[in-house]
Structure formats: C-alpha cells, structure tokens
Amino acid sequence: MKNIKILLFGFVLIIPNFIEAQDLPDTLNATITLDDCVTLDTDHDLVNFYKIDIAAFAFESEKLANDHFGFIANNFLTYNVNLNEEIVILQVHSDRTPARYDVVWWNAYLATLCGF
Q1: What tens digit of pLDDT does each residue of 16-49 get?
Q2: Distances (CA, A) of 50 to 11, 28, 31, 44
Q3: pLDDT digits (tens, 9 = 90+) for 86-98
Q4: Exposure string for 97-111, b = 16+ CB within 10 A, e = fewer
Q5: What is the pTM of this model?
Q6: Residue 74 has what DSSP assignment?
Q7: Closest to 87 measured CA to CA, from 24, 14, 15
Q8: Please, is 82 exposed, middle or buried when counting C-beta atoms within 10 Å of its C-beta (0-12, 13-18, 19+)?
Q9: Cα(3)–Cα(71) distance, integer angstroms
C-alpha cells in the first residue's frame, strides 16, 4: 500500500511537467505590446493556441504575471503563463462566438481590448 501511495505521489509531481512540456497542436506566434495589444499571425488561418513572448514585461513573479493576464482574459480568451520560458499561451475560444470568425476579425476584436 505504501508503494502505491509513493507511486501515485510521483505521478502527481511528474504528469503536470510532462503535459506542460508537450507542444500544443497548431500553435502559432502572436505578439503583445506593453499596453496589452495582442496581434495574431495573419499569415495563417485562425488556430486555437498562440504563443506570445512576454520577456519585455519583466514580471518579477509567476503570481504577478498570472494576475496581469487574468485581468485581460475573458470568455473568449484564456492566457496560460509560463514564466520560466517567458511566454504565455493564448487560447482563442472561437467556439464561443455567435459565428465562426477569421483571424482578421479576431485581431480587430483584440484591438478593442488594448490598454484596459
């Protein structure tokens, strides 16, 4: 029984790191300015996940980074911070809009959120 507990505890520690290390399918790059203007790559069709370099923000802690991106997240946008790599993964929830919109529409929407 003790060995099972140790094994389960090991999985609890290892599995999140394994999942985090996996590449997300169809991940493209996006950019962000210091006033939170996000721009998606328009050279490709819309995908669900975008990787954004956040090194310029120079967050002092993961909590500060999560607080910042939690403030700009909404029902259509989820941000997952990885401060060790100085990136955030933006998940675009295109399934939550009344119609299927393209990347141009999403960039226009994201522009309305700048500076809040």
Answers
A1: 444 444 555 679 999 999 999 999 999 999 999 9
A2: 28, 5, 9, 12
A3: 999 999 999 999 9
A4: eeeeeebeebbebbe
A5: 0.78
A6: B
A7: 24
A8: middle
A9: 43
